[in-house]
Write a structure and sequence with these properties.
TIM Barrel, binds 2'-deoxyinosine, four-stranded parallel β-sheet, binds zinc ion, 14% strand
Length: 396
């Protein structure tokens, strides 16, 4: 086994949050795959296998797919989503939603989603979708939720059979251009002990501020329920400010534009504006999705992605996939990109993972058990492999 070691770089995430003397461990792709990972921001209708999209389309007589060969179809989704604009990116979902209109299709897509995440080393996931987008062939909102929940349970069962332990919860999304958010919030609340762990709003951000859905958020707060809001992706600080201070979001979907409230003074010291300071002080979780942000133009490159600075400043950063199909990504791939851009170590990846687990919408004792019984032992195991190899002189 060949393992890589390096001196800790000043300015990496780890220097600020995990004192770790001597060499630090740069994980290999195989170790990243095997590391336990937690995913809080992943869209069900953005994560289908290309072969499943093609097969469902064929079965259902949907003839508008731009390609029918799975490989070419996968490439088409990635390229079409690579437009530099959130609005254009979102157009690709018409095809995935079109084939997710029956109980069987929703069940299958949900089960495959959980199996794919488990095979990628994800141990806990919150997967979101908009029930209102799955009603064109006669399903009710409740039937949609039940089909997905049943699919998630089946995915967990099959993953366990394959030796992967994973737990998946659903987040119900309301589309921000539509007017069903209160209804979807009530739906989320009525399924909260049956597989639905929270609520979200998504869709085009510019022109659709979070306060448009205040009624839904105030209802959920009165019910002591949890919600996240896509904010600060295609629109800037006002969107983040509204999501937090008017709507009371528990987490921010993306939140990358919080960087606009961070500057440097004449001495080169980093200065946080009031909103950025609030986000950091209150430990507001940021659901960051690097590849998706590159595609929609929210960041120029991995190396320039605000995740580097925000992690160094110890915001509560989490790493996510957003849409695995449109981005051709996985949690392992997202971590790989960050390791390459920022030379993150295994300790850094554990930090992102623990941040995510702390920020999940399941009860505190269950989050703690995941951290202590699954995440920490998983990373410790990878570290001891590395120490063993080091002792054998296999480090390069
Ligand atoms: O990154 C995103 N920003 C805003 N909306 C998004 C993003 N990714 C997916 N969506 C939309 C398109 C889906 O149809 C919907 C529900 O999953 O959420
Ligand atoms: Zn998203």
């Amino acid at each position: 086994m060949r393992i890589y070691a390096r001196r800790r770089r000043v300015g990496g995430v780890s220097d600020s949050h995990q004192p770790h003397a001597g060499t630090a461990h740069v994980p290999t792709p195989d170790q990243i795959l095997r590391a336990p990972k937690v995913l809080l921001h992943d869209h069900l209708d953005g994560g289908l296998r290309p072969a499943t999209v093609a097969e469902l389309a064929r079965e259902q007589g949907y003839d508008r797919l731009p390609e029918t060969d799975p490989e070419r179809l996968g490439a088409w989704f990635r390229e079409a989503a690579d437009s530099g604009s959130l609005e254009r990116y979102l157009e690709t979902f018409a095809h995935t939603c079109a084939v997710m209109q029956t109980r069987e299709a929703l069940f299958r897509v949900a089960a495959e989603c959980v199996r794919d995440l488990a095979a990628d080393g994800v141990v806990y996931a919150e997967v979101r979708y908009a029930p209102e987008q799955h009603l064109t062939r006669g399903l009710t909102l409740e039937q949609v939720v039940e089909a997905v929940n049943d699919g998630f349970r089946e995915g967990e069962r099959l993953a366990a059979r394959d030796g992967h332990r994973i737990r998946a919860g659903a987040l119900l999304t309301a589309m921000r251009h539509a007017a069903r958010s209160r209804e979807i919030a009530e739906l989320a609340n009525s399924y909260r002990d049956q597989g639905v762990v929270g609520f979200d709003i998504a869709g085009a951000e510019a022109g659709y501020p979070p306060t448009r859905h205040l009624d839904a958020f105030e209802y959920l707060k009165r019910e002591n329920n949890h919600f996240t809001i896509h904010a600060g992706e295609a629109f800037g600080l006002p969107s983040i400010w509204q999501a937090l201070q008017w709507c009371g979001a528990d987490r921010l979907g993306h939140g990358v534009r919080i960087i606009d409230d961070i500057g440097t003074d004449a001495d080169g010291r980093v200065r946080l504006g009031r909103l950025a300071a609030y986000v950091r002080d209150k430990r507001v979780p940021l659901e960051m999705c690097p590849t998706s942000n590159l595609q929609t133009g929210a960041a120029a490159s991995y190396a320039e992605h605000p995740i580097g600075l925000l992690s160094r400043l110890r915001f509560r950063v989490t790493v996510n996939t957003d849409n695995r199909l449109m981005s051709g990504t996985s949690m392992t791939r997202e971590f790989e990109h960050l390791v390459e851009a920022f030379q993150y170590t295994l300790e850094d990846l554990q930090w992102f993972t623990v941040n995510a687990m702390k920020s999940a919408f399941i009860p505190f004792d269950e989050r703690l058990a995941m951290i202590n019984d699954v995440i920490k032992p998983g990373y410790a195991g990878l570290r001891s492999e590395w120490l063993f190899a080091a002792a054998q002189g296999n480090l390069t």
